[in-house]
Each structure stands twice: as C-alpha cells, then as structure tokens.
Amino acid sequence: MSVFRSSRSDPSTLRVLTTFPQDALVRLEEACPQVEVVVIPEQGRLPFRARGEVLLSLPWAWDNLAKALKRGVRWVHTIGTGVERLPLDLIEDRILTCSRGASSIPIAEWVFAVMLALEKDLPGSWINSSPATWEGGDLGGLHGQTLGIVGFGGIGQAVARLGLAFGMQVKAMRRSDAPSPVEGVEFASGIQELLAQSDHVLLALPLTPASRHILDADALAAIPPNAGLHLINVARGGLIDQEALRAAMDDGRVGRASLDVADPEPLPEDHWLFDHPRVRLSPHVSWSMPDAFSLLLDTFIENVGRYQRGEALEGLVDQTHGY
C-alpha cells in the first residue's frame, strides 16, 4: 500500500506527489534534499493532506490523476517520452514535461542490434555441426547503406551518430526546418523520398493525430518493387497501418519489419504479426538496460533544479502538437 509522508515545516521544501514507490526515488531525494516525496495511491481515496506543487506521473491515465492535479499541482512530469496516452485536457494550463531522449542510449543500441542481426544473418549463420564449407557465406553489411530516420529528437540523433560511425549515409525528416544538430545528416523532403532511397528506415517520432498511420499504403508504395527495405519501429505501433505493412511485406517491398511496438498493445494472441516470416517482434523492450529508470529520472532531477531557479525546463511538451 502507498505511504503518505507528513509535511515538513520548512516552507522552501518542494513537495512532489507521485505514485512511484519511495524506494524507487532514493536518487531523487539524495540529489534534491529540498524535495519531499509524497507517495499517493493510483486508485482509491487520497489522503486529505496529500498536496504538492509537482506531480511525477506515469505517462498514461490513472484513476486518481484528476484528483491529484487538484491538490496544488502546477507542474507535471511524466516518466517516459510519449504523452499520447495522457489526458491532456486534464493538464490544462499546467507545465508539462517528459523524459524525452532519456532512453536514447539503449534504444539506439537495440536499433543497431536488429540491423546487424539482419545484415549478418544472426542467428541464422550460427552452426551446431560441421558445414559443407568453412569459407562460404553471403553476409551483408551496414557500411555504405542508407539509413532513413523519421523523427529527429534524442533517439533519432543517437541512432544517426552510430550510423555515421558505421559508414552509413544518414537521411532524416522532421517537422522543424532547423539545421541538423548532427553533422553529416541530410534531410529528406518527405516520407516518400526517405522510403524510396533507404535500406533501413527507423520510426522514432511521437504518435499524434498528424502522425498516425504516417506509414500507410500510399507511403509504402514509394518503396521500389522487391527492394526488401528493413523497417524498424521503436516509437508507437499506431504510426503504421499494419494491414498496409502486411501487403508491403508480402510483395517484397519490405523485406523485414523489426517492431518493438504494435497496435494495440498487448496484441491479441492470434494476431498475424506473431507468425509473419518477415516480422521480428519484441514486447516494447528497446528502452531497457541496467538502471534504465535512473536515466528516465535524471531529466526530472535536472528539471527540479531548473524549476527552483526559475529557469526553462527540459523536455517541455507542446500540448497543441501533443509532444
């Protein structure tokens, strides 16, 4: 059961409401001694004296969210990147931030793991008995290939840097027309150009009404016939029209789909994505690594200091655009 800590008498204390257990936030309290963590239940009655200026929240709706927001909250921070599952109408004019980019390291590693697994035929090239020849093989390589990245935030930029280090040509697209923060990255004019010119395409953008099914039948038709493009999605399943993807895989335009996300999650037991020979599916784990939660918490810890100094916060969410 959640535990409520009584208030301190020090008026400089910043009280943070959260549903995360106290032992998960030891780093926060050590790094920010001026913070008092007030643990509240996700559902049921809120303690009468549970009030705080800040809400450290799950990145989706939970039963007591509306009640908690009414307990003096001025700033909401979500542990996660996407906010499409958070009821933004409840946030109203409060400050909203997220841990954007905090998972860029493990996700970039995962992206290259699946690309290398495809090009190096892993585990298919492993043996458990003597082969006909020890000098055969027809493996591919990333060097010289083109990596397309849709969405160029922290994750996209981390993947781009690794791609350049592997000798890949890296092209990206994003909503902003600002110069690339990663030297050597070219920008494509649109999704069709990116799909037509890439060997691997990564989806690393937020799911919003504007981006839902950004990969639909029309977009996938831009891939040359029998191109065998490798599609990678680490963002949200709703970015892809999955029936259009199935058609593109069946006709050879998409040779492999490495999907860490799906629509819906979890998938029904009999869903075709589990069995399609061109699909490699994982259960939304690309963000995982030792101390992954600490990485997500780091953004909040940095922002606590900024908030108390009256400075601009990192990971601000534009509620109009939904990310």
Describe the structure.
The chain has 323 residues and is an alpha/beta fold. It has 2 domains: 14-101 and 291-309, NAD(P)-binding Rossmann-like Domain (Rossmann fold); 104-281, 3-Layer(aba) Sandwich (Rossmann fold). It is 25% helix and 16% strand. It has 9 helices and 12 strands. It has helices spanning 26-31, 65-69, 88-91, 104-119, 154-165, 191-197, 217-220, 242-250, 292-309, and strands at 14-18, 35-39, 54-57, 75-78, 95-98, 146-150, 169-173, 186-187, 200-203, 229-233, 254-259, 279-281. It has a 7-stranded parallel β-sheet with strand order 8-7-6-9-10-11-12, sandwiched between helices. Strand 1 (14-18), helix 1 and strand 2 (35-39) form a beta-alpha-beta unit. Helix 4 (104-119) packs across helix 5. The longest helix has 18 residues, at 292-309. The two termini are 33 Å apart. The model is unreliable at 1-9 (pLDDT under 50).
Number of H/I helices: 9
Which superfamily, in CATH terms, is the homologous superfamily of the largest domain?
NAD(P)-binding Rossmann-like Domain
* Content of β-strand: 15-25%
Low-confidence spans: pLDDT under 50, at least 5 residues?
A: 1-9
Return the domain count.
2
CATH class of the largest domain: Alpha Beta
| Strand arrangement, major sheet | 8-7-6-9-10-11-12
Give the H and E element order. EHEEHEHEHEHEEHEHEHEEH
- The 3D shape can be described as elongated
Helix percentage: 25-40%
Class of secondary structure makeup? alpha/beta
Mean model confidence by pLDDT:
93
Number of strands: 12
What is the end-to-end distance?
33 Å
CATH architecture of the largest domain: 3-Layer(aba) Sandwich
Biggest sheet layout? 7 strands, parallel
Over the alpha carbons, how many angstroms does the gyration radius reach? 22 Å
What's the CATH topology name of the largest domain?
Rossmann fold
